């Protein structure tokens, strides 16, 4: 077994791996960027090395710097976590060539499954059902049109090297294809340095069901059952659960066989996930993620198997500690991704400083997090703050436990998806085990997930003095009440009392623009301008695309808040904008 392992990642997954190493009595080594000097994952590990500036390309994505830290630390192996270099075959080869064990699958398997078209071709040859569509990239838009006609509309344009919802665009009709093709190619180039795109049939409202597999160097390949990850936004997961609410024993056995055959087809070892689409009784191979998944926790909760520990043991040459016959799924687990996002603003990223932080606890509750009070969620990295996982005897009991845990979770200083999760878990759609796509795509419903209006500092309607709203807790005859007091501020308003939920009260000053009917459209988030879709002097209708702002690995479309003529356009492509900065004036 290894004596020292370097973790080539950050945040909650770095902490998750470090904990497994500690239990195995293996020394852990962290790497960190300048932005993460005080990050919890640095403190969690036994040793830590600075590898560069905040920009991921110069730190967490730098093979040279990570291998340099591994040499200096004396590590024997490198665990990539997920994201960054986890599915980079060249990085796996570089580790091997430098004398480090890559805690993951062989580079050949990453190559085979990293290319969606190659993976589809391999699975098709192995008799694994795939979604109807191409198995080779389109050479150009004309070739994409031919692929779309053969697959049948609606279609999905997908980046060959894509994943995590990146490089995925839908064309409902032939008229939509050019835009979808260009968007998928652009994201493929940006996130995976590969602008190749292929086209397949788009399955409307399928269930996203994936199977966890484990394989070792000794020919043992097993599966740990399925996870249902159907609740998504922009093809990125929000809630995961195991077992799948629409998977019976017959289907579980069938898709488990599909997953293990897929792993064997590419000579796989380590932990991996075969993702698929469930449409009624049909199940189609989608892709294979050659790494530990974000949502591996729900499988651990229902099987009692430590997936990360098995992954490390396999890398050290050991056999799996369990056989297929020993895998039992017990109870039901649900995971909610706690992202720094505003669901009511169409999931706009909401980076910021965490001013207060308290995690839920109690029976059947697990929190995998990478933050503490004082941590900053920056636009440089993924918006996920933590994963909240619960277990109980069945799905309804687990749902009630999750709602209780969400009520206990306190994160002050920035917006999160906690209000969204609380609301969606009380809907009839969730109770019936539906995909909830009708809700996550409904902007009106999303607006209803906004947290209760916080304290507001603004002039009154008559232009009088500013008024401050503060939340207090009072006791009357031994019973506690939450009350709001509105009045003129006195003294230093920065010292506002904490809100009734224990979080610091927030105040915002209304501006004359972007909020409601004013002429100025303000940026709802911090990021960089990726695209400007309008020109000064142009006429726009309410809802027309104004610009695209890139933040936290996502492209966010900003639309006109009113109809009129553009009189000011202070932004251009490449500009950095802060939340509240004016984007356009429409009069």
Written description of the protein model:
The chain is an alpha+beta fold and 587 residues long. It has five domains: 4-103, Rossmann fold, CATH 3.40.50; 132-201, Dna Ligase, domain 1; 207-447, ATP-grasp fold, B domain (D-amino Acid Aminotransferase, Chain A, domain 1, 2-Layer Sandwich); 457-495, no CATH class; 520-586, Beta Barrel (OB fold (Dihydrolipoamide Acetyltransferase, E2P)). It contains 16 helices and 33 strands. The strands form nine sheets. The protein has an eight-stranded antiparallel beta sheet with strand order 13-12-9-10-11-14-21-19. Strands 3-2-1-4-5 form a five-stranded parallel beta sheet. A four-stranded antiparallel beta sheet has the order 26-33-31-28, with no helix packed on it. A hairpin with a 2-residue loop joins strand 12 (270-279) and strand 13. The longest helix is centred in the middle third of the chain and has 17 residues, at 249-265. The radius of gyration is 25 Å and the shape is globular. 47% of the residues are buried.
CATH topology of the largest domain: D-amino Acid Aminotransferase, Chain A, domain 1
CATH architecture of the largest domain: 2-Layer Sandwich
The level 1 CATH classification of the largest domain is Alpha Beta
Evaluate the radius of gyration: 25 Å
Helical coverage, percent range: 25-40%
- Mean pLDDT metric: 88
CATH homologous superfamily assignment of the largest domain: ATP-grasp fold, B domain
Using the alpha-carbon principal axes, give the shape. Answer: globular
Number of strands: 33
Instruction: Count the DSSP helices.
Output: 16
Q: What is the domain total for the residues?
A: 5
Share of residues in strands: 25-35%
Structural class: alpha+beta
Largest sheet report:
8 strands, antiparallel
User: How far is the N terminus from the C terminus?
Assistant: 68 Å
Q: Identify low-pLDDT runs.
A: 455-466, 490-516
Read across the widest sheet, the strand sequence of neighbours is 13-12-9-10-11-14-21-19
């Amino acid at each position: 077994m290894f004596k020292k392992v370097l973790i080539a990642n950050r945040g909650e997954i770095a902490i998750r791996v470090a904990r497994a190493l500690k239990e195995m009595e293996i020394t852990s080594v962290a790497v960190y960027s300048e932005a993460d000097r005080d990050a919890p994952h640095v403190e969690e590990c036994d040793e830590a090395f600075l590898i560069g500036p905040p920009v991921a390309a110069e730190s967490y994505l730098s093979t040279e710097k990570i291998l340099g830290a591994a040499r200096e630390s004396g590590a024997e192996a490198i665990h990539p976590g997920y994201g960054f270099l986890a599915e980079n075959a060249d990085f796996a080869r570089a580790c091997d060539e430098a004398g480090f064990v890559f805690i993951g699958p062989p580079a050949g398997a990453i190559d085979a499954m990293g290319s969606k078209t190659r993976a589809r071709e391999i699975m098709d040859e192995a008799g694994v059902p795939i979604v109807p569509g191409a198995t080779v990239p389109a050479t150009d838009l004309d070739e994409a049109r031919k692929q779309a006609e053969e697959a049948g509309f609606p279609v999905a344009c997908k980046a060959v090297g894509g994943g995590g919802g990146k490089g995925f665009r839908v064309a409902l009709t032939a008229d939509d294809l050019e835009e979808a093709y260009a968007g998928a190619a652009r994201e493929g180039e940006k996130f995976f340095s590969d602008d190749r795109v292929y086209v397949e049939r788009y399955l409307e409202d399928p269930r996203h069901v994936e199977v966890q597999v484990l394989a070792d160097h000794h020919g043992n390949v097993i599966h740990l059952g399925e996870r249902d990850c159907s609740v998504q936004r922009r093809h990125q997961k929000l809630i995961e659960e195991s077992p799948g609410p629409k998977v019976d024993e017959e289907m579980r056995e069938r898709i488990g066989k599909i997953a293990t055959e897929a792993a064997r087809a590419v000579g796989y070892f380590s932990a991996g996930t075969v993702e698929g689409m469930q449409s009624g009784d049909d199940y189609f191979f989608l892709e294979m993620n050659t790494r530990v998944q974000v949502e591996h926790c729900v499988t651990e909760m229902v099987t009692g198997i430590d997936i990360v520990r098995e992954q490390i043991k396999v890398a050290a040459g050991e056999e799996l500690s369990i056989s297929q016959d020993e895998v039992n799924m017990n109870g039901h687990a649900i995971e909610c991704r706690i992202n720094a996002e505003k669901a009511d603003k169409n999931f706009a990223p909401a980076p910021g400083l965490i001013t207060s932080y308290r995690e839920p606890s109690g029976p059947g509750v697990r929190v995998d997090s990478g933050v503490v009070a004082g941590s900053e969620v920056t636009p440089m990295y993924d918006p996920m703050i933590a994963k909240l996982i619960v277990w109980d005897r069945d799905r309804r009991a687990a749902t009630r436990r999750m709602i209780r845990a969400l009520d206990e979770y306190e994160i002050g200083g920035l917006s999160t998806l906690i209000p969204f999760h609380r609301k969606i878990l009380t809907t009839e759609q969730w109770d019936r085990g539906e995909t909830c796509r009708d809700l996550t795509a409904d902007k009106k419903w999303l607006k209803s997930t906004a947290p209760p209006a916080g304290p507001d500092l603004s002039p009154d309607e008559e232009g009088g003095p500013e008024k401050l709203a503060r939340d207090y807790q009072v006791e009357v005859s031994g019973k506690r009440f939450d009350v709001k007091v509105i009045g003129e501020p006195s003294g230093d308003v920065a010292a506002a009392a904490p809100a009734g939920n224990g979080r610091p009260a927030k105040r915002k000053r209304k501006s004359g623009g972007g909020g409601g009917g004013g002429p100025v459209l303000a940026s709802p988030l911090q990021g960089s301008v990726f695209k400007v879709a309008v020109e000064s002097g142009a006429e726009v209708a309410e809802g027309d695309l104004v610009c695209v702002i890139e933040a936290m690995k996502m492209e966010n479309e900003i639309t006109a808040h009113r109809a009129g003529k553009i009189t000011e356009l202070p932004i251009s492509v490449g500009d950095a904008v802060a939340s509240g900065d004016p984007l356009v004036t429409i009069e």
